Amino acid sequence: MIAIIDSGGANIASVKFALERCGETAQLTADHAEIQSADRVILPGVGMAATAMRQLHQHGLVDCIRGLSQPVLGVCLGMQLLFEHSSEGDTEMLGVLAGNCRHFIATPGRSVPHMGWNRIRAIDSGERHPLLADVAEGAHVYFVHSYFAELSGDTIASCDYGESFTAIAGNGNFMGCQFHPERSGPVGEQILRNFLAL
Fold first, then answer.
1. Could you confirm whether domain 2-197 is CATH 3.40.630.10?
2. Residue 166 pLDDT > 90, yes or no?
3. Would you state the pLDDT for residue 153?
4. 128 or 190: whose pLDDT is higher?
């Protein structure tokens, strides 16, 4: 069973449809037992870090998520929630990935939010991460975000939007995509399939 954590995100339906295209079904839940017993867990999110963390606290899910041992994938804001801190509302987050999130600075010709297709590039760490299996270097994926995770030791792939930032992160069983794999065509579907195969 795949559990989609009910964090109040707006991308839940599209994540469920993407999983169905991969031949899987998922259960939207805030129930601790269902989340802990799931084979895979997805933490979605579209919105504000402080609001999402407040929702997780209200459901008593913070320690539940931190204690998970099965593969966990955060998507967009869901990935940011896995990091330590966000400058958005000075928010303490889950802290299972190293690093902080901050706001893009708009410049002439580069608007905020960062929205649209952009390339991702694997971080050269000597061994390609399983999430990137059969994903071409420089593949295009779809982003919509105003805040980003800085590069850190947990960065698996980066993207550039005026400065380099974390596009995919991972540490042990916790992983995340800043972009929307559910809206990133065949590349996003391959990344989801790679996650499901872990």
1. no
2. yes
3. 94
4. 190
Q: How far apart are CA 40 and CA 5, in angstroms?
A: 11
* Catalytic-labelled residue, pool 59, 64, 76, 159: 76
Q: Check if 180 is active-site.
A: yes
d(CA 74, CA 53): 13
Beta strands 164-171 and 155-160, pairing class = antiparallel
Is the pLDDT score of 12 beyond 90? no
Active-site residue flag, 159: no
CB 152 within 8 A of CB 166: yes
Tens of pLDDT, residue by residue over 26-66, are: 999 999 999 999 999 999 987 899 999 999 999 999 999 99
Closest CA to 119 of 158, 175, 77: 158
Catalytic residue among 64, 88, 114, 182: 182
CA distances from 152 to 42, 60, 169, 170 (A): 22, 28, 9, 10
**Locus of tokens 């933490």:** 43
* CA–CA separation, 157 and 129 (whole Å): 9
Task: Give the global pTM.
Answer: 0.95
Residue 22 is among the residues annotated as catalytic for this protein = no
* Domain range list for the chain: 2-197
Q: How does pLDDT run across 78-89, given as a tens digit for each residue?
A: 999 999 999 999
